[in-house]
Design a protein that fits this description.
The protein is an alpha/beta fold. The chain contains eleven helices and 18 strands. Strands 3, 5, 6, 9, 10, 17 and 18 form a seven-stranded mixed beta sheet that branches. The protein has a six-stranded parallel beta sheet with strand order 13-12-11-14-15-16, with helices on both faces. The structure holds zinc ion.
């Protein structure tokens, strides 16, 4: 099999590896579509410490089952699946209490262990979720983003009719806004990128604020009738200011920092709003257990991700695309990889 492996900072190569056998409880997948993730780019830049090298990059995979282990039920050759990159330990206090998303030893494939940027993958059948026919491969790549968004809405206890200011209109921010609408909340999306905000508007997000040419405080004051927002979601790595985000929350408001674990900009600013307004601040870094719900939102077309792809590259050009991503400090929309 062929796989893109990172060996060290700026050393990403397409390697030929021995074919893996399909063990008990596992299935072999032929990859159809994958995505280049922020974590891939940060590892390439040397901003994310390598947990092992060489390591196959990639945390997203949509593929076709080509072989199943003897004891695997509910899956067969030809099934189209998406792989959940997270593996929980099933043994810590959080796992035993049914909170596997807070597992002490949570592993993410593509970050802590080999990922999915290879033509074939052998994965545990527990990590595989069948895709309904109506969901396109290129849309299913966003399942992890949707799962993380659902987890965020749940952890914020976002109620019907509440406002949620989302700071950062990258792919994750735009998806979170759509999930908020599904929950009958009112998203207010802020960014400095007019192009991304225009995409958000086309996808039905009514309140968008470009903080380059308007004052978010004034706009949010008006939109919320002077109350400010009950909830705020700060999208990590969207190149926005965390301290400023706290100002958008109402007294006693709930604030979530949302993003991938181990990936954070250095945060500077003033955080006295946490004390002054007695804000509740939480972190959400995965969508473990939310894959079935995320797939359902794609199948029902509740979440539209078709506009969130920046470009598509063939598998052979992943190295070049990651290099380009590493050099480009710009906004993050998804680069798809076709196999
Ligand atoms: Zn655990």
């Amino acid at each position: 099999m062929k796989a893109w492996r990172i060996h060290d900072k700026e050393q990403l190569t397409l390697d030929e590896l021995p074919i893996q056998s399909v063990g008990e409880g596992c299935a072999k997948i032929k990859t159809l579509v994958s995505g280049i993730s922020l974590t891939d780019i940060l590892m390439y830049r040397g901003q994310l410490v390598l947990r092992g090298a060489p390591m196959i990059i990639g945390r997203q995979c949509v593929g076709m089952v080509t072989e199943v282990g003897q004891d695997v039920t509910g899956l067969q050759r030809g099934d189209r699946v998406v792989i959940d990159p997270f593996v929980n330990c099933k043994n810590c206090t959080a796992c035993n209490a049914g909170r596997s998303d807070e597992c002490e030893k949570l592993i993410c494939n593509g970050v802590d262990d080999n990922g999915f940027m290879s033509d074939f993958i052998v994965a545990s059948s527990n990590a595989l979720y069948k895709l309904p026919e109506r969901i396109k491969d290129s849309d299913a790549v966003f399942t992890e983003h949707i799962a993380l968004s659902i987890n965020t809405v749940n952890k914020l206890n976002l109620e019907k009719g509440e406002h949620i200011v989302i700071v950062g209109a990258n792919a994750l921010g735009i998806i979170l806004a759509q999930v908020a609408i599904y929950n009958q909340a009112v998203p207010i999306l802020i960014d400095t990128d007019a192009e991304n905000l225009a995409i958000a508007e086309e996808l039905g997000i009514y309140y968008t604020i470009n903080s380059v040419d308007s004052d978010p405080m004034k706009r949010i004051f008006t939109i919320t009738g002077g109350k400010m927002a009950e909830t705020v979601a700060f999208i990590n790595m969207a190149q926005m200011a965390f301290g400023r985000s706290l100002d958008y929350a109402a007294r006693g408001g709930r604030v979530a920092m949302v993003g991938w674990a181990d990936v954070a900009d250095e945060i500077t600013g003033r955080f006295e709003a946490i004390l002054n307004k007695q804000l509740k601040v939480i972190g959400v870094n995965n969508g473990v257990r939310m894959f079935p719900a995320a797939i359902n939102l794609l199948a029902t077309r509740t979440v539209d991700v078709s506009r969130l792809v920046r470009c598509e590259v063939p598998f052979s050009e992943v190295g070049e695309a990651v290099r380009a991503g590493a050099e480009n400090d710009g906004r993050y929309m998804k680069t798809l990889v076709r196999f």
